Amino acid sequence: MTILVGYVQGEGGLGGLQLGAMAAESLHTDLVVATVVPKPWTTPSMAKVDAEFASWTDEVAAKAEAEVAEYMTIYPPELSWRFIRLDHRTVASALIEHARAIDADALAISSTGDGQLGQIVLGSTANILMHRSPVPVGISPRGYRSPKDGRLTRVTAAVSGSGPESRSVIARARGLCDRMDAPLRVVSFAVRGGAMYPPLVGLGTEDDVLSQWKAQSADSHRMLLDDGVIAAGTDCVVAAGRGYREAFDSIEWIDGEVLFLGSARDSVLAQVFLGSRASKLIRHSPVPVLVLPR
């Protein structure tokens, strides 16, 4: 049982490392922090540039290890962790291969530094991981800071309807919560999309449609409760709004919480396939997101 963190020295901040450490501490498992450096060409050469390249990669790895070691001093000694250097042509492929090699429980990374603070922006590496990772992928918002006690406080599972996909997500979220002794919350999003203004059908009609979506989501929650998929006493909420940001803002989020998402559907080319709805949830989430593979 291991949490793998992909760490890039000087880029993306410490959010991914904090997310990985929080998960490892909450799950009582160990932590592996990996930095990927470019692998040299296989053709041997005595050219000076090859020696300079090797020296540069050594320096990058050493700086990353020093940053990680300094940060990890804030955690109790009971949290077992180690640093590893991976030489590979691509970061995503290196992390995927190592996740398989160590039988990782999950892989954690940081959002790119391109977005606003508190926002998740998927870079090229994150996009590949989201589509190819054999294990769940967690990504932290830019500037993310875990709680002072370093523990995960709540898992919020996002579902749509009461079908097999929602039931699978809830079952896996419940399993995670049982391992961490943390509470589960179930959320459905009722979001009114963009429209002409003034809308041809009228504002009242659009509000009625949103109200119907909210009612349908609440009915789905009751069905899942009646079937025992959701445990009695579990907090079930509907996040509604005229956009995803408004919907997220309509419900409470706490420090140390993660949003649990399932992949949209099976894909021949990918273990994790994100539909447009899941991508919007990731971009607007104020808390780290954990995306499940299929």
From TrEMBL:
- Please name the SUPFAM superfamilies in this protein's record: Adenine nucleotide alpha hydrolases-like
Domain UspA span(s) in chain numbering: 2-137, 154-293
Q: Which Gene3D superfamilies match?
A: 3.40.50.12370
Q: Which PANTHER family does this entry report, sorted A to Z? A: STRESS RESPONSE PROTEIN NHAX, UNIVERSAL STRESS PROTEIN UP12
The similarity comment for this entry is: Belongs to the universal stress protein A family.
Know the name of this protein? Universal stress protein
Q: Which organism is it from?
A: Gordonia mangrovi
